Amino acid sequence: MILALASAAVLALQVRVGVIDTIPDRDTVSRGLSICVGPECGRERDSVKRIPVTERHLATAFRDSTARSLLLRARASRMQQDSAIVSYEAKAYQRISVGMKAGPIGRDRLIFRTENATDVRWHRDRGAFVELRGARSAIVGHSPQEANKEMLDDIGDMSNLPYRPGQETLWIGGSMVRAEVDEGELIHPLAEGSEAYYTYEAGDAAGFRLPDGREIRLRELKVRPRVARWNVVVGSLWFDVDRGQLVRAAYRLAEPINVYAEATREDPKSMNDVPLPVRGMLKSMSGQITAMAVEYGLHQGQFWLPRLQSVEGQGQAMFLRVPFSMQQSFRYSAVNAAELDTLPKLPVPQYVLDRAILDSLPEAQRQAWRDSTRAARRVARRARADSINEGLIETVSACDTASTFVKMEQRGETAIAVRVPCDPVALASSDELPGSIYGDGEELFDAAAAEALIAQAISLGAQPAFGLQAPKLEYGMQWLRFNRIEGLSVGARVTQQFGAGYAGDATLRFGVADREPNAELGLSRTNLTRTIRIGGYNRLVATGDWGNPLNFGSSLSAFLWGRDDGFYYRASGLDLTGSREHGATFTWRLFAEQQRNAAVENSFSLAKALRDAKFLPNIESDRGKWGGASVRAVRTLGLDPRGWRAFGDMRLEGAAGSLDSGGTANFGRVAADLTLSRALGPSSSRAPLAALTMSGGTTVGDVPVQRLWYLGGTHTVRGQPPGAAVGDAYWFGRLEVARDFYSAARVSLFGDAGWAGSRENFSNTRAISGAGAGFGVLDGLLRLDVAKGIHPFTSWRTDLYLEARF
After folding, report:
1. CA separation (Å) from 728 to 113, 544, 547, 699, 762?
2. Which of 12, 68, 267, 559 has the greatest CB tally within 10 Å of its CB?
3. How many CB atoms within 10 Å of residue 276?
4. Which residue, among 289, 248, 304, has the nearest Cα to 456 in the 3D structure?
5. What is the DSSP letter of 41?
6. What is the distance between the alpha carbons of residues 2 and 21, in angstroms, rounded to a whole number?
7. What is the C-alpha separation between 774 and 750, in angstroms, rounded?
8. Do 270 and 258 meet the contact criterion of CB atoms below 8 Å apart?
9. Please, which residues have CB within 8 angstroms of residue 344's CB and are 6 or more apart in sequence?
């Protein structure tokens, strides 16, 4: 699933050659080889789909004459290979990271990361020679040794080339440059025909003077789509004014890509054979690229070569979020150096020649080629397996007889030889890598420069043009929930894009048990990392500050075991909200609403049918009207599961209101949670881990029942039922000791204690407490706890839930 969510922006590499009547020899194929990149490579070029450029397009594409001349100069430069760049030698660094969390407020956790450092020597006529100098991986549930060995067993693509002829300078998918727009791919803002999709405006100017006195002038070109789509970009491109060469760029995709919608766009029946549960999950899957940045450096006063490249994005499926990123940096030690002219010429790899031969055949001969090749390979595999079983030959890998092996690749028209050392320990401890794979890598990648470029180019004001699009209907498994108020609740949402980052949404939800419609209507603006929204609503609200009783995991628990850990009230009103998801997650809300009681209308659950289990009663909420504001900040520090990590959550709320029964009800609330964790020994060892959670909060004024603090349950004091302690002030602490098993599993023992009561008297009542054992996977993303209350004494409780602190 991780790969499926993170691959929305990856273009497939395909080989295409012209059709001829006979099988060509190897030399003919290697001379005539041409490379095409993208999922549409199998189509004839006259079938490429694009909007014809009209006079109206040309009349409205440019905000000023400078933008027109800059685009035309950049377009011409883009298609001209710089024949003056003959060779270079460089050090390359690459890092790929994939995380995972449940919901927007979940704890950041690293699921997978790999990084490598290489020495690259490239020559236009000879190919690219890549020496792997350092490489290591981190995989959740794996020791460093296991992760690095797995990396070496499946080495993947280590050929991180800074430049090759025909390479796309904007680094869109790492593809080869295409002259014309094709809607089957990302719509390039500089390609022929792009005026039908984009508008352009000249922006800021900058410049610098070289030691020889020449002045380099730079100019920004702001790119805005006419209509928001997943395959158009929003951002700013900077060019060398005199040459039209790209110098730096920062951009994002205009909107997320919906996996199901794209899969059924040309054939609405293509998913009919997929099982309904899987189809429901696919409908919730989306991917988005929130920021891409590239920056070039000037060498020898004439060659612009890439210095930094980065991409950030996020995939989502139902409750699960998968942030991903890639960072690349390059440092050049020589450009057009005479010693690089002595490099040997690399041959085209055999698999490329075989594919070229196959694709060059007519269809009848092509099938015969496939059949004969499969038959020959089956015979060879069977003979080798029989010889090994009979002891006639031994299984020998390249690393059994040498300290390195060479991996041949073909990228574009460049043959690549990657030399890989066989010692994963030496690769992982290389001085070419940053100090820690869990660090920010700032010494090799200038993250601050990329952040500044992105913040300026794709702020909230950088948006596509206004323009209505067809409304989208969202429904499926992600819109189902179950609780003791509504019973089974079914929902759906319609969204309408207005352009310029604005979107309207209308949500309708109906509970089978309470039969009270929940409805929301809103208008929002977003740049995919920042969102502002104004809306009206009638909704069911959970009182708790921890967990989410209305999510999928809690609904499953309520249905299966008759355990609904939430307390609820109803709210109707208006609110203005904002969020920012980059580093820390920060949210704020201004509201004016009526709050009222939510009666328990559902008593059914599977547990009740089997053993007469009953839901807890709900609270009796105060009815009244309130206006106020709230803010919340959530931050994760540290990614090493065995090193120091901190997860903090700070909340503030204030409101003024009146009760329907008479009197005012003005109040304020403040609370903070902090969880610290670390291995009880060197982070490289298999020593046990420990985690400590501390939380406290208080209030001022007359707090309504629905805004008190409620302790007990999976996220506060385990072993105690929700609402075991209630008050206008609270504290709780949790201590946990765990052992990791290197298959993404963790077993732990824990003890919790907490108190809630009157803020006027913290010692008025005894603290509640509980203890037990837990089992978690994927660093606590999914957690099963078995706990027992100590004071007051309770029976054993079993809880399955998402997004544990540890």
Report:
1. 44, 13, 19, 6, 10
2. 559
3. 9
4. 248
5. T
6. 44
7. 8
8. no
9. 126
Task: DSSP letter for 46, please.
Answer: G
What would the two tokens of residue 644 be? 């120091």
Domain endpoint, select from 407, 437, 457? 457
Q: What is the pLDDT of residue 10?
A: 37
Beta-carbon neighbour count of residue 300 at 10 Å? 11
523 assigned to some structural domain: no
Radius of gyration of the chain (CA): 30
Place of tokens 């190897």: 26
Q: Which residue has the tokens 């690349």?
A: 328
Query: Is the CB of residue 234 less than 8 Å from the CB of residue 464?
Result: yes
Determine the Cα–Cα distance for residues 119 and 331; give it in Å rounded to an integer.
10
Mean pLDDT of the chain: 84
Residue 295: inside a domain = yes
Are 645 and 637 within 8 A, CB to CB?
Answer: yes
From CA 421, how far away is CA 402, in angstroms rounded? Answer: 9
Which tens digits make up the pLDDT trace of 157-183?
667 889 888 888 888 655 667 788 888
Choose among 454, 235, 207: nearest CA to 327.
454
CB 711 within 8 A of CB 756: yes
Domain limits for position 629: 622-806
- What are 644-650's contacts with CB under 8 Å, separation 24+? 644/676, 644/677, 644/678, 645/676, 645/677, 645/678, 646/674, 646/675, 646/676, 647/107, 647/673, 647/674, 647/675, 647/805, 648/672, 648/673, 648/674, 648/675, 649/105, 649/673, 649/674
Q: Which two tokens stand for residue 322?
A: 């998968």
Three-state SS for 519-550 is EEEEEEEECCCEEEEEEEEEEEEECCCCCCCC
Helix (H, G, I), strand (E, B) or coil at 760: coil
CATH number, domain of 646, equals: 2.40.160.50
Asked if residue 465 is part of any domain, the answer here is no
Count up the domains in the chain and report the number.
2
What are the angstrom distances between the C-alpha of 511 and each of 484, 602, 620, 697? 10, 10, 20, 33
Confidence at residue 39, expressed as pLDDT on a 0 to 100 scale? 37
pLDDT for the residue 27: 37
Whether 596 is in a domain gets the answer: no
Backbone φ, ψ for residue 654 (5° rounding): -145, 140
- Alpha-carbon dihedral 369, 371, 373, 378, rounded to 10 degrees: 180
In this prediction, residue 442 carries a pLDDT of 73
Residue 647's CB: how many other CB atoms inside 10 A? 22
Say how many residues make up the chain: 806
pLDDT computed for residue 393 by the predictor:
52
Q: With a cut of 50, which residues of the chain have pLDDT below it?
A: 1-46
Distance separating alpha carbons of residues 147 and 136, to the nearest angstrom = 8
The residue among 495, 774, 484 whose CA lies nearest residue 604 is 484
pLDDT given for residue 389 in this prediction: 65
What is 162-197 written as a DSSP string? S--TTB-TT-STT-B--SB--TTS---TTSBTGGGT
For 576-589, the pLDDT digits (tens) are 999 998 778 999 99
Looking at residue 392, what is its pLDDT?
A: 53
With contact defined as beta carbons under 8 Å apart, do 95 and 113 qualify? yes
